[in-house]
Amino acid sequence: MKMLVLIFRSSFADEVLKTLDGLKLSGYTEAPAVFGTGAEGRVFESHAWPGHNTMILSALGANDVSRVVGALEKYSKARHKEGEQVPIRIFAVPCEQLF
To answer: pTM to 2 decimals?
Structure first.
């Protein structure tokens, strides 16, 4: 099992969540306003660095990890073809359910 960590600009949250819901995953946790610095710059919901990110955590088996990554990669590439950059990062961390 892997803990999938998705971090993306909150302006894309509706579309990313719609994509995840379409995959009929067993569940995920959403942190709707996270702040930080990355390749696309700073986001701190301030005058100097407007905006914020959303973070999704989901414990998934290998098959579901592949489905999520494939679906979000397809979404990102489609938006890129329309001239829009989608700041999204996906990480997979080994995960063991203890309780």
So the answer is: 0.86
